[in-house]
């Protein structure tokens, strides 16, 4: 699985006081920082009860499922935190867990307890209480002070027109109210910068704890890449053996028979030569298709926009293609993006029953993002050994990640995020 790199953590946002105030990331991070202490307190209370209880009951059989339920609970909480961090801070952290075993309570228990990510999740949830307490205190105090100073002219206006004196007023002098408002504006900018700083710090700590072990993740990514390359090699070998090789063998046999009958049976010789000619053309077509499956020439010559438009033109339904790339990405990224779209469209034509689809490629701060959408019946899964799993393995060769959202009844969205540097 893929955790975020350093460049994927909370972006600093637009430069300048006005930029940090109008940046949506500031206002998405602020509510999270105001409630994170409460969330941390809730997790501390729940875990302080369930962990001792499950360990105490482990001396009898009921403790084993309770331990599994407790661990699954905090792993679910960590998974939710990863989604919230992405929504609040823009930090994208993939779930770094080891593959789940096929069956067996004992195997599942060992899987849960031996995975380092399980204990890193627990550490993060326990860290939320002290970290959140500091974040809530600073955030609430700074926002409250900023707003209080900013509304001083309004409070003075109410006071001057016969209203009561508010405890929030800093004085009953009109120039003083405007000076306080100016100070409040400066304090608001400072608060926005501090919010972004706390968001960056929180996102960095979350990346370390919730992103899993980087070395183990890279080993798994390389292993999946090697497996994908080996599967591709076997496919090419099988296609050559079953297709072009058999046709060329048939051509050789026909030419041998024609040579043997060249003088005695000229009519049959002409027929055999015609068969050999047709077989040669068929073999050339198969080799051309195989070469296109390895790396299409149009992709090298004209780039992703033209190559994906060609795929869309060959699809049995209408497929809208939108490619928004200022520059061509590296060849490896182009190739992986192309084959993800090609395989996804092929699966859609076979299984989805869709009537329309779209392909979108954009570049953001993470790299190239590929979205393939269709309005079919849904139900697509990233199952081991399946075609979509092979695409995910192909993306993993460059440390990319692929996500499938395909509820039963549709629609289906397949997204691949391919990190790269131009």
UniProtKB/TrEMBL annotation:
Residue intervals of the Signal transduction histidine kinase subgroup 3 dimerisation and phosphoacceptor domain: 232-297
The reaction(s) this protein catalyses: ATP + protein L-histidine = ADP + protein N-phospho-L-histidine
Keyword Membrane part of the UniProt annotation: yes
Domain of life where this protein originates: Bacteria
Parts of the chain that traverse the membrane: 29-49, 55-74, 122-155, 175-195
PANTHER family: NITRATE/NITRITE SENSOR PROTEIN NARX-RELATED, NITRATE_NITRITE SENSOR PROTEIN NARQ
Protein name, as recorded: histidine kinase
UniProt source species: Nonomuraea fuscirosea
Organism lineage string: Bacteria, Bacillati, Actinomycetota, Actinomycetes, Streptosporangiales
């Amino acid at each position: 699985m893929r955790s975020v790199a350093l460049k994927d953590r909370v972006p600093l946002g637009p430069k300048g006081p006005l930029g940090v105030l109008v940046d949506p990331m500031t206002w998405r991070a602020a509510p999270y920082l105001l409630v994170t202490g409460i969330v941390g307190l809730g997790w501390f209370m729940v875990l302080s009860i369930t962990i001792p209880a499950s360990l105490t009951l482990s001396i009898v059989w009921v403790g084993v499922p309770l331990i599994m339920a407790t661990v699954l609970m905090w792993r679910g909480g960590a998974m939710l935190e990863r989604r919230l961090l992405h929504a609040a801070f823009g930090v994208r952290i993939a779930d770094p867990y080891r593959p789940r075993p096929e069956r067996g309570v004992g195997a599942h228990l060992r899987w849960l307890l031996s995975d380092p990510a399980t204990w890193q999740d627990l550490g993060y949830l326990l860290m939320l209480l002290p970290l959140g307490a500091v974040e809530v205190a600073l955030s609430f105090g700074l926002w409250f002070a900023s707003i209080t100073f900013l509304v001083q002219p309004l409070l003075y206006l109410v006071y001057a027109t016969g209203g009561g004196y508010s405890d929030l007023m800093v004085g009953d002098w009109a120039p003083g109210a405007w000076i306080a408002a100016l100070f409040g504006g400066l304090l608001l900018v400072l608060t926005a910068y501090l919010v972004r700083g706390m968001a960056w710090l929180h996102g960095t700590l979350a990346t370390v704890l919730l992103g899993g072990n980087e070395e183990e993740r890279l080993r798994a990514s390389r292993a999946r890449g090697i497996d994908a390359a080996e599967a591709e090699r076997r496919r090419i070998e099988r296609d050559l053996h079953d297709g072009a090789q058999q046709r060329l063998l048939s051509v050789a046999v026909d030419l041998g028979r024609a040579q043997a009958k060249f003088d005695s049976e000229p009519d049959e010789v002409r027929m055999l030569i015609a068969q050999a000619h047709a077989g040669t053309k068929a073999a050339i077509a198969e080799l051309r298709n195989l070469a296109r499956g390895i790396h299409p020439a149009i992709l090298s010559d004209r780039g992703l926009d033209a190559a994906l438009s060609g795929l869309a033109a060959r699809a049995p339904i209408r497929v809208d293609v939108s490619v928004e790339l200022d520059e061509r990405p590296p060849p490896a990224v182009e190739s992986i993006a192309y084959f993800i779209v090609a395989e996804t469209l092929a699966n859609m034509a076979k299984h989805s029953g869709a009537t329309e689809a779209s392909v979108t490629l954009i570049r953001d701060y993470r790299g190239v993002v590929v979205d393939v959408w269709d309005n079919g019946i849904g139900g697509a899964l990233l199952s081991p050994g399946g075609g979509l799993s092979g695409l995910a393995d192909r993306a993993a060769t460059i440390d990319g990640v692929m996500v499938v959202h395909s509820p039963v009844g549709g629609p289906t969205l397949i997204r691949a995020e391919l990190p790269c540097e131009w």
